[in-house]
């Protein structure tokens, strides 16, 4: 609902009249007082899950209007000014609501169409921001329930079931509050796991430090000698594979991501298949710092806890204790920066073109995150609509390519 009471409007006109030998030119400076506008926008979600204005209820009237005339026949117009201003007030009273209806049903709806609802994030996953229900309007807020779910581009129907708690927003200091539950992050981790991104990042970009290779060679010296002493001359490698979708946890103290990996110690003889020396399980826990920049949500990870143990025997798990520190250092130096470099681009939050978040603040709650921000309009509504029309015309007039 939008309501304007006892406002004023100033209008400036240039008149030019040429009728046979009669010529008149001058200016009209008009002002309207006691302008009252009462408008109600009826909001729904369309078939694509996008916010849309379905109807407008409008009531508007101008209480009083004045006008001053200048130019050739300015005094004549001033003499009959009461009659002219009455006519002008009548015309304006009839034009305010149609203008508001066109602005809402056409222009603003065109602006809302620029909001991404279901879009690709990268070559692995997409994100669904469609509305689940019609917006709920209260006395203090406009509440919208978005799906907020990632999906694997290769299998869009395989998604994670949502068991997360419903966020609760009690703050009203900023223009907009975005609530993100654990499901938002878990669906992303699940989709990337199904798409194979974690495994690809770890395997293709892995480089082992020399001191760690020497420690591994010493630890598995007996195993190498039992298999084939000639393997001592060949390089070692580690293969890390994420065995299950990582899970996020959000508490008032912050957010974290738990990852389970299978780590294989391999010997790489040239021109021959790799020889496995051992297999162990790695459990890692990362601190996750969530940030908002413009209209993109990004996460920065930092390895907090790390543990490895053998899949074969408890005795071997004891022998792996000296590897804990070097392996953790290797992950922090070699692997974590690769992941952060990939995810630093973030994911776009659904906002119309020309609008960004500013003065962002992130608050952590049990089970969800709340991002509060104000809105910054980089581009006016008219410019956005004209740009969209130009793009539509260009797409229609572009010749087809063979």
UniProtKB/TrEMBL annotation:
<dbReference type="InterPro" id="IPR017943">
    <property type="entry name" value="Bactericidal_perm-incr_a/b_dom"/>
</dbReference>
<protein>
    <submittedName>
        <fullName>Phospholipid transfer protein-like</fullName>
    </submittedName>
</protein>
<feature type="domain" description="Lipid-binding serum glycoprotein C-terminal">
    <location>
        <begin position="170"/>
        <end position="373"/>
    </location>
</feature>
<dbReference type="GO" id="GO:0008289">
    <property type="term" value="F:lipid binding"/>
</dbReference>
<dbReference type="GO" id="GO:0120017">
    <property type="term" value="F:ceramide transfer activity"/>
</dbReference>
<dbReference type="GO" id="GO:1904121">
    <property type="term" value="F:phosphatidylethanolamine transfer activity"/>
</dbReference>
<dbReference type="GO" id="GO:0005615">
    <property type="term" value="C:extracellular space"/>
</dbReference>
<comment type="similarity">
    <text>Belongs to the BPI/LBP/Plunc superfamily. BPI/LBP family.</text>
</comment>
<dbReference type="InterPro" id="IPR017942">
    <property type="entry name" value="Lipid-bd_serum_glycop_N"/>
</dbReference>
<dbReference type="GO" id="GO:0035627">
    <property type="term" value="P:ceramide transport"/>
</dbReference>
<keyword id="KW-1015">Disulfide bond</keyword>
<dbReference type="InterPro" id="IPR001124">
    <property type="entry name" value="Lipid-bd_serum_glycop_C"/>
</dbReference>
<dbReference type="GO" id="GO:1990050">
    <property type="term" value="F:phosphatidic acid transfer activity"/>
</dbReference>
<dbReference type="Pfam" id="PF01273">
    <property type="entry name" value="LBP_BPI_CETP"/>
</dbReference>
<feature type="domain" description="Lipid-binding serum glycoprotein N-terminal">
    <location>
        <begin position="1"/>
        <end position="155"/>
    </location>
</feature>
<dbReference type="Pfam" id="PF02886">
    <property type="entry name" value="LBP_BPI_CETP_C"/>
</dbReference>
<dbReference type="InterPro" id="IPR032942">
    <property type="entry name" value="BPI/LBP/Plunc"/>
</dbReference>
<dbReference type="GO" id="GO:0034375">
    <property type="term" value="P:high-density lipoprotein particle remodeling"/>
</dbReference>
